[in-house]
Design goal:
Elements (H helix, E strand, L loop, with lengths): L1 H29 L10 E7 L6 H9 L6 E7 L6 H11 L3 E5 L9 H12 L4 E5 L3 E3 L3 H11 L4 E5 L1 E2 L4 H7 L4 H6 L2 H7 L11 E5 H6 L12 H11 L4 E5 L4 E3 L5 H15 L4 H18 L1 H11 L7 H24 L4 H4 L2 H20 L4 E3 L2 E3 L1
Parallel strand pairs: 1-2, 1-4, 2-3, 6-9, 7-10
Antiparallel strand pairs: 4-8, 5-10, 6-8, 11-12
């Protein structure tokens, strides 16, 4: 009991320190000065059955303050009205170009094959890969260019403002806060470039094209599940600096509209980013048990403090557990609010921890059983 309470206190202290330093660094990056350079930039958007979202995404790119760009949309064999939407926009703005995607090659994941084709078609010195469910503020491109040039980096990603309507769907999406509260030391990673700490999200991948050429495009990762994180790791592993920023002022995203899709999509990412091995399984098992313990730490500490009236021996464990819980979930709430989540989602941290564990266990089962994941009507094993 005392050991668990002490571990919980250490986790809370670590979360408080890491979240504080991460928030400070993200605020610093937001204040990056505007560069005087104006290279040609390719906005590249893979699209598969996105007729409900593609227009607002492309229009947000047409309205950018940075104008020296092209907007390439690859129609990945859609069966809806995606093509019609893009072709109409192409008539409005000559910078927009519709590309009909080729049939999926053997050995490739669908999105990665689309990204490879966009890479080959692009003419820009820099590329901004983004998803159809994003909407970009007018300075989105300029911000990314500023950070890459200022810090001499080759890849910039980060967390956009995540939008949703359902409280549980939103809470499930918020599990990504684990990275900035308990995992990723942003400023230290900028110096270390340790592949294991490399982080990215496919909603915003601002890339220096020369670096992408140097790693062979996407051909070296053509069958991975979590392409964005693997891209960041590949960059770091090959000496190309990758960075992570706060993007809520420049990009918003409605990633999922239902709890079911949110669960399926997030478990795919969680399972795909973790190496499958016996040692890793046991490491994840220990981490899962810790997350479950943290999720119930507040009622646990409360019970101990109540019992301590008759049993003073549990006063110390109860106090340590209570302090650790407040530090942990106080840090969670603070970072959730910083990333743009509403207060009603920010206070759902304990439930987010349980969601992470359940998604990993279910995703692991789908992967080892061979059932795999189904995404965009394609099976991923």
């Amino acid at each position: 009991m005392l050991i668990f309470s002490f571990i919980l206190l250490l986790v809370g202290c670590y979360a408080a320190i890491l979240s504080t330093t991460n928030k400070k660094r993200l605020i610093q990056l937001n204040a990056t000065e505007k560069t005087e350079l104006s290279p040609f930039i390719s906005i590249v958007i893979p699209a598969r059955n996105e007729e409900t979202t593609i227009e607002q995404c492309v229009r947000s790119m047409m309205e950018q303050s940075y104008t020296n760009l092209e907007i390439l949309v690859l129609d990945d064999n859609s069966t809806d009205g995606t093509a019609d939407k893009v072709l109409a926009l192409q008539k409005e703005d000559t910078r927009v170009r519709y590309i009909r995607g080729r049939e999926l090659n053997d050995g490739w994941r669908g999105k990665l094959f689309a990204m490879q084709q966009l890479f080959e078609e692009s003419k820009g010195e820099f590329l901004l890969f983004t998803d159809c469910d994003t909407v970009h503020g007018i300075h989105s491109v300029q911000f990314g260019l500023n950070v890459l040039v200022k810090h001499k980096a080759s890849l910039l990603s980060g967390y956009p403002l995540q939008r949703s309507t359902g409280i549980f769907t939103w809470t499930l999406i918020s599990v990504m806060i684990l990275n900035t509260v308990l995992y990723l030391p942003i400023k230290l990673q900028e110096k270390l470039q340790f592949p294991g700490f490399s982080m990215a999200i496919g909603q915003y991948l601002f890339i220096r094209k020369s670096a992408l050429i140097a790693i062979g495009g996407f051909s070296t990762m053509k069958n991975v599940i979590c392409d964005d994180v693997m891209l960041a790791r590949t960059f770091a592993r090959n000496g190309h600096k990758q960075m992570f920023a706060d993007l809520k002022n420049n990009v918003s995203c409605t990633m999922y509209t239902s709890f079911k899709d949110s669960f399926k999509g997030t478990e795919r990412s969680i399972t795909g980013v973790i190496k499958q091995s016996v040692p890793m399984f046991f490491a994840i098992f220990v981490a899962a048990m810790l997350l479950i313990g943290c999720a119930f730490s507040l009622p646990f500490s409360a019970v101990l403090l109540v019992i301590s009236k008759d049993n003073p021996a549990v006063l110390l464990p109860g106090t340590l557990a209570l302090v650790g819980s407040f530090l942990l979930f106080g840090s969670w709430i603070r970072m959730a609010l910083f990333h743009g989540y509403p207060f009603k989602v920010a206070i759902m941290g304990p439930l987010s921890f349980l969601f992470v564990v359940s998604m990993y266990i279910h995703g692991y089962y789908l992967r080892v059983s061979g059932k795999g994941f189904v995404w965009k009507d394609r099976k991923i094993t």
